[in-house]
Amino acid sequence: MNAILAPNVPFAVRLDTNGRSPTQAIRFVTESYVRMVLAGFALAPASLIAYLFFFQNPALKFEHHAFHIVAIAVATWAGLFVTYVTWRCYRASGEPLLRWMTLGFLGFALIYALHGAFTGFADHNIWLFILYGPASRLVMALLLLVALLSYGSTPDAVDRRTKTRPWLTWIGLFLLVDVVVAAAAHSPIVSNPALRLSMEGGALAISALNVTMLLLRRIRSPLMVIFAISVTAFGLASLAFILARPWNHMWWLAHAIFAAGFFLLSYGVVQAFHTTKSFSTIYSQEELMARLADETARTESALRELQRTNQMLEQLAATDPLTGASNRRRFVEQVEAEIHRVKRGGAPFSVLALDLDKFKSINDRYGHQVGDDVLKTFVKKCVAAIRPFDGVARVGGEEFMILLPQTALEAARIIAERVRTVIATTSFESGTQRLTATVSIGASQSGLDGDAIDEILRVADKRLYSAKHQGRNRVIAA
Ligand SMILES: Nc1nc2c(ncn2[C@@H]2O[C@H](COP(=O)(O)OP(=O)(O)OP(=O)(O)O)[C@@H](O)[C@H]2O)c(=O)[nH]1
Known about the structure:
Layout: H1 2-5, H2 8-14, H3 22-55, H4 65-93, H5 96-117, H6 126-130, H7 132-149, H8 158-161, H9 165-185, H10 193-216, H11 222-243, H12 249-274, H13 285-317, H14 328-343, E1 350-356, H15 359-366, H16 368-385, E2 391-394, E3 399-404, H17 409-424, E4 428-430, E5 433-435, E6 439-445, H18 453-469, E7 475-476
Parallel strand pairs: 6-7
Antiparallel strand pairs: 1-3, 1-6, 2-3, 4-5
Helix pairs in contact: 3-11, 3-12, 4-5, 4-12, 5-7, 5-9, 7-10, 7-11, 10-11, 11-12, 15-16, 16-17
The site of guanosine-5'-triphosphate has 16 residues, from strand 1, helix 15 and helix 16.
């Protein structure tokens, strides 16, 4: 395998002509490809416009009033629906871009509705019917440009979002545009083609400016990419309307391009509605993945912390707070585990029962604090005298037990003797006090002295009390 792979390695490195690693090069190529695909997608209507411009038969027309009325009615209702969804997003996020987009959709719907409603006037006053189209596109293009200019601005305060008055003012303004267009359609200036062309050309220029600014500001969030493609479609639709004559194929194509852009933008709005209710803070897949990784790392570290805390709590719950030795509960668990191990064929274990001699008189003579210090030192000395895996437990006031896994009684006796000697030769210190103490120890072995925990501990206890009765400071193992 290596012989085959080896020549490929320098080849892969040679791919890197600009000092980029191969993965960066591939990334650059794929990102460029995606940009080209998006640009191609946005500009696809241009090829249709060019096709009709060069090959359209000027005699061909499709003048169908009912169809036009239905199409514009659908567009108007869709416009009002999108206005509502965009407004809901704005109410939630307060994003100024969404405020202006809501106004753009609302203005478009209120003006464009008359383009459909006045279809019947096409034969009497064509301008009354036609002019509402460019007027609605111009108004929407303007408001979408302002929307882009407000991209990334601070969200509006909640009380501002809920005010109805500004919305009513804007509705009034849009209705005024309706009236102005009707007046223009009845005035002599309407015969000047510059009127319609300036409105449509204005919409085209503003859409082009909008896309240029988007590209210059390098705004690449997923919804703003949709915004850019849609605005490009609006601009191209205006271009097609400029080149069209009412009812010819270019004219219908212009409607279709505009509708495509409109529905694409409405898709973006609904995406925002279902996610962050915002156009600027919706995340790309990469950002989401990075955030997910961050959150996962945070959760994992919190889990580790929780585990550490749980272990600490478990340790605390199983430990005697004064001496740090295991408590009775933990000791019993450990002995039971040993019993199971022995039952599975393991070597026997032994236990030692230890009781400090005449501890009451230490307390009486030196005080309780000194007694406490003696107990602490006693545990330390025991731990030092036994093996690391043997455990010391405090099972009563000055009563302790030591578990000696895999230890027969004779070995337990030797260990107990070592503990006894260490304690008897220790100088216990507490403040300025120095004192000595002794310990009595009883030992028992699993199997030999019983198989159940109660039996084994009882025998150890019995021997401990024999040690006491025989004069203390001694070990009894049989
Ligand atoms: N300082 C201190 N003393 C304790 C603690 N727990 C129990 N004691 C004392 O330990 C003493 C145990 O005394 P006894 O059970 O009479 O036995 P002893 O004096 O050790 O005599 P023998 O066991 O017969 O050798 C009592 O005085 C208890 O108050 C503790 O946590 N700290």
